[in-house]
Automatic annotation (TrEMBL), chain A:
WD repeat boundaries on the chain: 47-89
Positions of the WD repeat-containing protein 75 second beta-propeller domain: 334-659
GO annotation, cellular component aspect: small-subunit processome
Protein name: WDR75 protein
One BP annotation, GO: positive regulation of rRNA processing
Source lineage: Eukaryota, Metazoa, Chordata, Craniata, Vertebrata
Stored Gene3D superfamilies: YVTN repeat-like/Quinoprotein amine dehydrogenase (2.130.10.10)
PANTHER family: WD REPEAT-CONTAINING PROTEIN 75
Database matches in InterPro entries: Beta-prop_WDR75_2nd (IPR057644), WD40/YVTN_repeat-like_dom_sf (IPR015943), WD40_repeat_dom_sf (IPR036322), WD40_rpt (IPR001680), WDR75 (IPR053826)
Pfam families hit by this protein: Beta-prop_WDR75_1st (PF23869), Beta-prop_WDR75_2nd (PF23769)
Region (Disordered): 758-797
Molecular-function annotations in GO: RNA binding
Record keywords: Nucleus, Repeat, Ribosome biogenesis, rRNA processing, Transcription, WD repeat
From TrEMBL, chain B:
Protein's recorded name: U3 small nucleolar RNA-associated protein 15 homolog
Species whose genome carries this gene: Chaetorhynchus papuensis (pygmy drongo)
Predominant subcellular localization, coarse grouping: nucleus
Listed CDD domains: WD40
Alphabetized InterPro entries for the sequence: U3_snoRNA-assocProt_15_C (IPR018983), WD40/YVTN_repeat-like_dom_sf (IPR015943), WD40_repeat_CS (IPR019775), WD40_repeat_dom_sf (IPR036322), WD40_rpt (IPR001680)
Positions annotated as WD repeat: 118-159, 244-285
Summary of the function given for this chain in its UniProt record: Ribosome biogenesis factor. Involved in nucleolar processing of pre-18S ribosomal RNA. Required for optimal pre-ribosomal RNA transcription by RNA polymerase I. Part of the small subunit (SSU) processome, first precursor of the small eukaryotic ribosomal subunit. During the assembly of the SSU processome in the nucleolus, many ribosome biogenesis factors, an RNA chaperone and ribosomal proteins associate with the nascent pre-rRNA and work in concert to generate RNA folding, modifications, rearrangements and cleavage as well as targeted degradation of pre-ribosomal RNA by the RNA exosome.
Amino acid sequence: MVSPGALRVVRCGGSAVRGARAVYLLCASGDFVKVYSVNTEETLRLMGGHADLVTGIQLNPHNHMQLYSSSLDGTIKLWDFMDGIPIKTFTVGSKLLALYTPAGAEDSVFVVIPKKGERDTFQLVSVKLTKGAGQDLEAKELSVVLDGVGASMKHIAFGREGAYVASVKDVTLQVYFFKRKLLNRFSLSTVKTKGGDNHFSCIVCHPTEDCIATGHADGKIRLWRNFHHRKEYTYSTLHWHHDIVMDLAFSMEGTRLLSGGVESVLVQWHNESSCQKDFLPRLGSPIEYISMSSDGALCCTLHTDNRITIINSNLRFSRSIQGLIKSRDVKTGLVVDPRTKALVLNGEPGHLQFYSLQSDQQLFSLDIVQRQYIHQAGLKQSDLVKVAFSAQGTWLATVEESEEVADPELQLKLWFYHEELQSFQLNTRINTPHDNHITDMCFRDMDELGDDSLILVTTGRDCVFKVWVMVGDTDPEAQHSVSWSCDFVGSYHNYQATNCCFSEDGSLLAVSFEETVTVWDSLTWDLKCTFCHPPGNIRNICFGRLTCSKYLIGATDYGFLCCWNLLTCALEWSAHLNVVVLQPDPLSEHIAAVSWLSKESSLFVFKPNEPRPVYIQRNLCKEKILLAAFVPRDEPEMISSEKYLWLRKSQLFFLTDTQELMTLSTKSLEERLTPSSKQLAVEESLPVTPFSLLLGKHRRQQAQEDTDLGKPVIHNKQEQASPAVKELLHTPAHVLPSASFLCTIFINSLLISKENKSAEEVADEVEMESEKAEDDSDEEDVTEMEQEDTSHMELLGEMTCKLSKSQEKELRKIRKTDYSWISAF
Amino acid sequence: MAAYKPVVVQACPKLGEKITQDTLYWRGYKTPVQIKEFGAINKIDFSPVPPYNYAVTASSRIHIYGRYSQEPIKTFSRFRDAAYCATYRDDGRLLAAGSEDGIIRLFDTGGKAPLRQFEGHAKPVHVVGFLSDKYRIFSGGDDYSSNLWDIPSATEIISYSEHTDYVRCGCASKVNADVFITGSYDHTVKLFDARTKSSVMTIEHSHPVESVLLFPSGGLLVSAGGRYVKVWDVLKGGQLLVSLKNHHKTVTCLCLNSSGQRLLSGSLDRHVKIYSTTSYKVVHSFNYATSILSLALSPEDETIVVGMTNGVLNVKHRKPEEKNEKSQKKRQPAYRTYVKGRTYMPKQEDFCVSKPVKRVLRKYDKLLRSFQSSKALDAVLEPPIMLHTPEVTVAVMQELHRRGTLRSALAGRDEKQVNLLLTFVARRVIEPRFTPVLVTVADMITDIYQPVVGQSAIVDKQFLKLQEAIGKEIDYQEELLEVLGMMDTLFATFTKKRDTCLEENKTNGLTEIIETNRNY
């Protein structure tokens, strides 16, 4: 019923390989292999099975419907990617870092594994794939081909028809010829000429000729020929990139060479000459991998920001597959757009992405900075740092600043939502709103008063907070147009202003100045009162909502969570907790606090009016959680458990420092995934044959017969009985009561009860009781792991179906009895 | 994949008067024509029929001017003393005028001698007008009486002696042929109905009434007197609708524009103010050299004629708007071919070739797109851009600085170009919106060209100029800071009086440049 902190990986890495007929796009993503449709950009299939990161995927050269994948867990899997089913699993035993399936090799594949006994040295080995009957096979026949190779997939390439293998590491190129068993080594000079860096970065082989192309760290591409001879080899140089060449790819005929790098420009070289080249510029972010389809009609590039771009053969942008765009640094925080309920955060450099959680898609990307982004290291780029929405989502305020520390080039922009254009339009731009960095920004949220009461507050490190209001145009006849201007500047003892927050009714503004929280009247801008809780600066503040609107919550640097009562102006309670994120739920009184302590993040949910938390989830994840946001649900979810009542109206999302987005859910992963798209795809791809029709008919008939005979009922009974017995058997013998006591219960459990109806009623009652019992256990030990809870409860639920009430109670009594005295012996 | 984004040029809002539709409309007049008359011009009246001649009453003459004539096309000079208030009839064929000797004369616009003379007023007649049935004339005299005359028989129909001071203005209703109003120096405006023996309504203006006006609908009445212009609702029994006080001397004349949307008032303070008749706010105003006595607007607002106390007649004609029509005519055939096939819906088997949209980029943008920094800087240092749109030059410099190529773009220039650069920097570095960027540029230039200082007299001179400009600016800022300090102490003493003494200072908007992009 409950699964804790379901973690969804939105990171996309690894290599992309195209399927046959250029219809499918295969991509290794985390522990999974994803299959995309090229035409619709949809995820058709998610093939999971590896226990660790998938490091390489290659098509089976002998069967284009099959795919090999290798993983860090030491297995190679053979898949049928059309149906998404694993065919075979070969266990190799050591970490696999890269996988190659050249066409020439008969029944062996090549993998890169770490050399035993030596750190950071890797070797290329060929693995003989045994032809066994079973699904799980051992593949232990390893023979070393090359020693001292690079760990990356891009550092090794196989020549035409698998005649030779080339590998690069640092400044050496090794070529090994299989037939002649000859190894040639070529070295470049290590001396850096003119700031250039000769290190190899990637390698590819020409598909039809004896030619090797290598990319280098200084942006050069070298084309090697005549490498059969140790001395008389030649190479020519192509140079366009100004920084490291990230990946290279030859077209199917070898006439064209594609290269990409940090510049995010795809370069196409014709006939290996440096004068004939085409460009596809401004692809958005640095190119990491380039891959060609097997028919040469399409090519695709993988970018560092979690995006795949599909490009036509005539170098025209075709489409892109993107989920949550990974930006360098999420400075804006997680903000929810009130209009679309989309998550809003930094996207591409200078852009704001609206990410729909329901469809796992980017709704749109709003260009905020409106400047050409230059992909070059060491430039002072200006980027978006703060975002705030008004309550209705009609106004959007953004702050952008350049990376310079001393004199940030600040701009505050206010955007108005244009109904006809369905997008935000720039209304006012304010240069240098503060003299120093802006630390926080918030709108006064007042739904009922309309736009006239809209106020924006910004706090800055220049020790002031500023209030911005809308001013109408003075021209009476002109169309209603407004702009924003500064109305009030407030400061407190020349301390830096760090946070600001409006109360729910908009009458009070809380601004924190280093150690002190000040509360201001938003009508007259008078200072009402101050709070502080030394030592330590205030990190976060927020007002309580609904019934708890008289409380102000603050978290300090030194690990205190304080709650002040605004009516008595006194501290209500405080707790020792190193709070990193403090996030109030906009629809209920609950406030979520995420703490960071000794390498694990914990979640506490509480109401401000009582110091005891409503919900605790320790060890939420190993990464540091940087941001959190409550996203309102479209309709309140039915949650029976009182413990999770706070999740009823809105859902909590987290972003960790590795930019993984997580959520807490009461449903399991399978339930949440809508399988509609997958099924559709399967049905489309399967042709309707007479046999399938016949088979389908037969199956339907069988199902009908089953129901007629009432088979399923009995079937269910047996299934339900088995876990109860298992439970008895799995409990350690030394904690079980005497066998004579258990005997009757055990035998009773095997009997089939006659009255189904009464059993159900009993089940209901018991379920309620079990919940109470669970609450009891919570009180005993609040830090109990969530997973234990789940299994515990599910078992109870199942057992109630066949045990009578009295027996159930007895069993529970036994379980609850304290057997700790046994451990004393 | 995104297209190249052009450099954003920061536009600053223009300070001062905002440009509205009204300012554009009322500015659309040519430079005025000045005509000298013999004395103060007390009345200007446009003929209601084309070619819209106008009668100007000044001293003892009535001049009739054509639309574009500088000289009078006709003169009525049969007055022994001053003439007053020459007014056209609705058909433009008759003209009535009062005079100092108390006789009202009626002229045919074609003839010279008066057709009729109405004698009955004992004192000068300052106001004459036709009723809308065309056969009667109303008049008001300094003998406090308002009379009604019959044109065919030249006899007095009725005389009202209700005012207690000079009657100086009047107006007939266009809706009802029996109704007319007169305003008097006794601070009242009276509404008369020819069918009754006495006035039907009296409105208290509380200042000597100089001018009255009825709206074409007849429902609203405007009176001017003293510094006030007041609007009254006649249908509600003379209720005050709005009182306008926008002049600082006596308002002498009122006038409506042809559409009835704007009200004009002229005053002795040398201004003509234009009000919107929906909001009664001033939307525009004209300035004149001397005090204004009379004002008239031709049909379609073609001409504004203003008469002054010193006898100067100021005539403004509207600028023609023909250019747009011509260009549209030329375009027509091209537009037709452009539209051709627009409605064609592609069929399923059709192969669509999309026409690439051509984006027009400025020269510097093209150069920046291909990373040619020096050439991009050259492009914006050309005199037309540098002189008229310095913000473009500065924006490109900023973009180059952002890309880290500003130094190389500035380096390697000859004497002439360095001279050009330094002239620009020295001139613009003190403008607050350019200062942050140009200070960096000046820094770099001095760094780069330091070794060659002293080799060229021109460049050395420019360096000295730059130094001078910066020195002056520093002095100026110091002074400003002193003033700010003084003001702070003043404000501090004010805030002490309040119970809550807070550290706050309202609007220190020194560093803010607020810019608004409006949606046109």
